[in-house]
Structure formats: C-alpha cells, structure tokens
User: Fold these one by one.
Assistant:
Number 1:
Amino acid sequence: MSVKNKDQRVAIFIDVQNLYHSAKNLYQARVNFAEILKTGVASRKLIWAYAYVVRTKTGEEKPFFDALIKLGIETRVKDLQEYYGGLKKADWDVGIAVDAIKTAPGVDVVVLVSGDGDYQPLVEYLQNQGKRVEAIAFGKSTSSKLKDQVNEFIDLSESPDKYLLKKREWPIKILR
C-alpha cells in the first residue's frame, strides 16, 4: 500500500552509477532522471534532491552534471580513482548514507534511487527514526532484501518507455 500525501517532506538520493549501469546492462539505454525525480517527489514537498556522480579526467560528463542541476538536483561529485593495474573505483555508498542520516531530521520520507543492497542498514536506521523509506530502481538488478525492507519499491522496469531515453534523444534530451 502506498502512503503518500502532499504534506510529506521528501529527500531524494540518486546513486547515478547504480542506475546508469543497470540501464546500460539491461536495456542498452540511458536513464531519464527528470521522470525519476517526478516519481520520487510524487506531488509531495521536495526538500532535497542529491545526485552522486563521478568525474573522469576527460570531463566529458559535464553536460550531464549541468542537466541534473537544471532539474534542481544538487550534484555531489567525486573524482574517479584509478589504481595500479587499471582498476577504477568511485563508490558513493558511505557518502549517500551520511547525507541521508544528516538530512533525515528535516524530512518525512527518504527516497533512495538505487538497487544496491548495501543500503539495508541505512534503511533500517531511517525506519527506526520514524522515516518512510522508498526505493526506486530497476527490479532485475535490485537486491531482493532491499526491495523487501523498504516501505515501497518502485520498479523502473515496469515502465521502461517512461524512465529510459531512446538513443536518438541522447544528445538533445539527456535530462529534459
């Protein structure tokens, strides 16, 4: 059952890498973050929206970051770490968890836009603080334990036409 009302204050935390890789691997497509933001807010009061992104040495992702900012999403940027042997890493799990805990007192609902099972302890903590926790992600690539634990899980796979951009829209409509 969905318990949403217009007076609820909402904070949205978008794990961009998680969604990007899921969309790419499952559909060979890109994510329509404008639609995801609308779904997360669901006619409630948006207090915060953060997107956790990774900056590469080339800077090719800057137009994408700018598009997120135009949507009203604050970006948290971390540089891609490159290790000896070619391993590349940019993990935002702890940063997202810390921000969610810090902002929780000012909101009623926390929306995690990620399918990462590592967020289970965060979900449990937030729920123990009386917060409603929702998750938005692609069901096929989402931890089943996370799905079971949140108050509501919204599966992007149920409406791929709504949440994915077609290849011809990429340069023009990356996030409109």
Number 2:
Amino acid sequence: MANPTPATAEPTSGAPVDDKRWLGLAVIAIAQLMVVLDASIVNIALPSAQRDLGISDADRQWVVTAYTLAFGGLLLLGGRIADYVGRKTTFIIGLIGFAGASALGGIAQNQEMLFAARGLQGAFAALLAPSALSLITVTFVEPKERAKAFGVYGAIAGGGAALGLILGGILTEFFSWRWCLLVNIPVAIIAVILAVPLIKQSRAEGDRRYDIPGAVTVTLGLVFMVYGFTKAEQSWTSPETLFFIGASIVLLALFVLIEVKTSHPLLPMRVLLDRNRGGSFITSLLVGVALFGMFLFLTFYMQGTLGYSALKSGFAFLPFSAGVILSAGLASKLLPRFGPRPVMAVGLAMGTLGMAWLTQLGVDTAYLTHVLPSELLLSVGMGLTFVPLSSTALTGVAPHDAGVASAMVNTTQQIGGSLGTALLNTIAASATAAFVLANGAQSIAEAQVVGYTDAFRVAAVIMAVAFIVTVTMINAKPGAGASSEVPAHVG
C-alpha cells in the first residue's frame, strides 16, 4: 500500500516546453503501474505458488518480504543514483532489470529461486520508482500541468492495488501463478521502447558523492532483523534468533552514527528529528507493519478457509481499494480545514477497529458479516490517514531535504511491510503449531484461523500505537505543508 508523496519543483523561467511531455507521462505511468501492481498481484498468487513449490508456512512470507525489503532498503540510494547518473538512464535500466527479475521468478523451480527473483525485483523497483517520480518533477514545470501530472501519478498509486488484486486473480485462475510475474515482461519492453524517444535525460548538478556505507549498513540491518523475526518462529530465545536481531540493532545504530558523521548522508538526521515529520514517519512504519500482514493473512483465510478461488479473492478485496480512494478524496478536503492530527486520528481509530473486527474470524464466519465490514472500516481509515500523513511528512522541510523526506514515506511503508510480514507470520505460524500440538491434527483448519486471528490481534495493537503516536506527536496547524521551493531531484 505504498503511498508515494511527490516532490515538486518550482517552474524555471524560460525553460523550454517539451511537446512530448504528456506522452512521456503515459510511459512513466505504465512503469509506475507495474511497480504498484507487483506489490498486490503476488498476494493473490501466493497460495498457489506455495503449493506448487512446496514452500513452508514459516517461509512463505519471503515471497512478499524479499520484494518489500529490497525496495524499502534501497529506495533512498536509488533516488541518489537516479539524480547523479541520469533519470532517463536509471528509468530504462530499472525497467529492463525489473523485467529480467520477473522472468526469473516466473520460471522459478524452487523457493530459493523465487525469493531471489523477488529481491531483485525490489532492487530494480528501488531504482525505477524514484526515477519515475523525478522525471515527472523535472518535465512538468508549470504549476497547473504539474498538478495534473501528479494527479495521474497519485491515481495510479491509489488504484493500482485494486487492479493488481483482480489481475492476479484472473491470471492465477485461468493460467498460472507464474503469469503474475511474467506479465511484467511485455509491459516493461513496451515502456522501454517508448521511453527512448519520449523521455528526456536530466540529472542533478554539484556534489554527487554516494553514502555507500550508510546504504550497506541500513540494508543489512533490516535484512538481519527480518530474518531474525523469521527464525523466531522456531524459538525467540535460540542463539540464531538472538544473533540476527542483535546484529540488526548494532548495524542500524551504526547507520545512524554514519549519517551523523558523513558530509553527504543518505538520510540526514534533521529530516527525522522534526516532531511532525518524525511522527509521520513512525506512523507510516507502523501502518505498514499492520497492513501488509492483514493482506497476507486475509488472502490465506479467503482461499484456504472460505474456499474462494484466486479470482473471487481478488474481487473480495475490491471494497478495500474503493474505500481508500474515496476516503482519500474526502481527506484532501478535510485537511486544510482541520489540520492533519484530527483527520489522521479518526482514520487510525477506524483502522484499529477494523483490525480488531478481524480477530473475530472463525472457520464458519461469513464474508458479509466479518470480512467486508472490517475491510470497509480499514479502507476508509487508511484513506483518511494516508493523505495527511504524506502532507505532514513534508511540513517545514528545508528545500534541499524535500526529496529525501518525500521518499521516506514510501521507504517506511515498505520497511514496515517487510518487518510486519515477518513478525506477524512468525506469530501466526507459532500459534497454529501450538494449537495443533494441543488439539491434534484433526483441527488443522481451526488451527490456521487461530494463527490468523493472533496475527490480527497484534496488528490491531500496532495500529492503536500508531494512533497514540499521531495524537501525541503531530501538532501541525491547518494549512501547514511542504515548502513550495522543492528541488527537482528525489532522494
């Protein structure tokens, strides 16, 4: 559920107008849609892929986590590379790499090959997404046109998940789960062919040094933490679990130290230490933890417990996507009048109630009485949360920091999704195993639902913590927002 916040640029007087800019926007939109689709399309295909490749319940989360972790961990570095190497160049490289990684995943013969392919997809998405965002920023310099262009970008970000769920259901139902990955290949090829003549090159000037130590330490730290949570399914106190979680804490602390000391940080600490921005990033991280877990377990509940087909599951998720899109429009009207805190607080309260409703699922509960109401509560709540959260993330930011502040919203959601999927999958698998041990193998279906509801219970608590963070930390006034003088680079 990534909700990217575009950085905008002031128009340059006398800048030449690109007559092909709207066709270029269509190409960028195709590429962005592919990235957004891939986050949701695989959720529907996951049960089929798990059966086909013999993936265990404990390891299935890596199909999602490998992508989100690489994406979130490398997104800030990807933005820097796009700025310095050239946005058109990295856009095309990202498309080609994403297609290649998709092909690798589509022909995967075992779980290791699929996990590796998903990680590669995430890495190239981290190059592609900020390139696309930067290209829009530098192509559309007139304010009204720029607003329209970002409107298209925002609609794709909000509505792409719905299309992914339906497309994933159709491809899995009538072809194979493999086509949920292979479908990216023709899309990427078309985008590359069109990008060459339609998109213009641009790059940042001045200091182009990379914070490689920062990128390495933060990415390794996150990978170790996710892996530690995964191993915790066997034992929270085992030497292996404690080693990886402990190593992750050390690496992330080292990352902070590097960012404080280096003259060209990947993530300047001043971006995080502002009260409103810091609160919005923490909220974004927590929401990512809860939401990614919800999608994973609700997919398995629909297909495994309710017996839905992949296609029916896709359509069953549609109310969620529709609710987010509609309530986001409402939030954009409420935000200038009431400010971010009241709107976000109401949204997160609704999200907490929706997640709590999911804890009441059972083997015999119905979609209309349990799943649908919780989806509607969650979706409206998230729509009310995403819009003010994105705005607050840029409140009072210095012009030269606006790009990295914008990217941080996407990064925290992806990292939250990675950690949440690993943590909640461990909780669910442990609860299921304990129930089977206590009640016998004849209760497998009930044991799985016990695991799902335990995960939803933890997700509800995490959502409630996000509500508390918002109420206590966010204090931006109505009308406060991002600096209007924002550089044309992201990251």
